[in-house]
Design brief:
Elements: E1 2-4, E2 20-24, E3 27-31, E4 37-41, H1 46-50, H2 56-79, E5 84-90, E6 93-98, H3 103-130, H4 135-155, H5 164-167, H6 170-214
Parallel strand pairs: 1-6, 4-5
Antiparallel strand pairs: 2-3, 3-4, 5-6
Helix pairs in contact: 2-3, 2-4, 3-4, 3-6
């Protein structure tokens, strides 16, 4: 999931010169820079349980997929020229707290999470099809395919608070943006033609005056 912070930057105490780690508000905070920090809530270990990842391997892989989902949001935030302030992970999922952008930016950012975890789903299907039945294959199936697939499907439900609320508007916004871009291009082309017509008319008038002066 993503959260908008508007254009106001949060204020962190102190000058962060290197990575720092501390506990704040029930979270283990890893401060990687002045503007970005990872916040791991105490309830985070409950997340794999909710996704039925009971074995150590599936448990760890479920946390990796969640982290990849949130980092995917952060990558698209950077691509859209915005700032990511914090990545929060907790027992019910996670949030990428970032600078607010245009609706088109928000729609792209909403897709960032599920697109980042989608390759894990494909790899999980491929590996479980190739590996013989056993604990490893079962763990990969539960975490990378079942839990991962449920996360993707759940996040794309068009309900406020989930990625799908903004993600599905991307296609409409792209059409609108293309139409607006074309309209702007047409206006600039019209202004360009008008400017050249004015220049040509001025040249003709000057040429006519030059001929009259010769006579």
């Amino acid at each position: 999931m993503t959260e908008r912070e508007g254009t106001r930057e949060p204020c962190y105490a102190g000058d962060v010169a290197r990575m720092q780690s501390f506990v704040e508000g029930g979270c283990w905070v890893i401060q990687t820079s002045e503007r970005l920090r990872f916040e791991l809530h105490w309830s985070l270990p409950l997340f794999p349980i909710f996704t039925r990842c009971a074995t150590p391997i599936s448990f760890a892989l479920a946390l990796v997929v969640l982290a990849v989902h949130e980092v995917g949001h952060a990558i698209v935030v950077r691509w859209r020229g915005l700032e990511t302030y914090a990545i929060r992970m907790h027992g019910m999922g996670g949030h990428c707290l970032h600078e607010g952008g245009r609706p088109l930016d928000e729609a792209w950012i909403a897709w960032g999470g599920v697109l980042a975890q989608l390759p894990f789903f494909v790899v999980g299907v491929a590996l479980t099809s190739y590996l013989p039945p056993g604990r490893i294959a079962d763990a990969l199936w539960v975490s990378l395919v079942l839990a991962n697939g449920m996360m993707i499907a759940f996040n794309l439900v068009p309900i406020r608070g989930l990625d799908g609320w903004k993600a599905w508007s991307l296609f409409r916004l792209l059409r609108t943006d293309r139409a607006a871009t074309k309209a702007r291009a047409d206006r600039w082309a019209e202004k360009d033609r008008a400017m050249w017509d004015t220049i040509e008319a001025a040249k003709k008038r000057q040429a006519e005056r030059d001929r009259q002066n010769l006579h």
